[in-house]
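Today's session is about reading a structure prediction critically. Students often jump straight to the picture, but the first step is always the sequence itself: look for stretches that repeat, for charged clusters, for runs of hydrophobic residues. Only then move on to the predicted structure, which in these notes is written as discrete structure tokens rather than atom positions. Here is the chain we will use throughout the hour.
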Amino acid sequence: MNKIERENIGTCNLMIVGVGGQGTLLASKILGKVLSEEGYDVKVSEVHGMSQRGGSVVTYVKFGEKVYSPIIDKGEADVIISFEQLEALRYTEYLKPNGKMLISTQKIDPMPVITGNAEYPENIEKLLEKFNVTFIDAVDLALKAGSPKAANIVLLGAFSKVSDISADVWKEHIKKSVPEKFIELNLKAFDLGSSICA
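Below is the predicted structure for this chain, in token form.
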């Protein structure tokens, strides 16, 4: 993937999508702090969706020299970071024609599938191949770091490689944002994620 470079972006529109309980909130919090420290004007939306029930969750993050609203409309997203495959498919219409997608290969059955009213699509990766996509086995990498719960930090590591922000800045804010006993685990998860898109 080509990097998103400061001089080229104007305003950059980023979406973080996933399922409640996957750590999308922490990821967007760290992202917002990193971008602010780098001198960007940053607007982060409230989370939409039933985050407490395992429902679909989306956070909009806009950053640039001056940003007036965090809302991103269809066809405007420069980058979509998806924590789950079906959620990636759900939000493809928000992607710009030349936009990028970083997608965890994790699959989580939504409620209609759990209740037997629908089936989880079998060909999602095939449907997503027409987009500029990098698939990441974020859960497996997080397990290698020490916990599957660190998949969100793996995905931030992957995104860090398409930004022009140094790893040290990311790591400093990860240290500030997670409990002390989990710092080493999360830093390892970040490094494993960044190695995917190196």
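Discussion point for the tutorial: Residues 157 and 194 are 4 Å apart (CA to CA).
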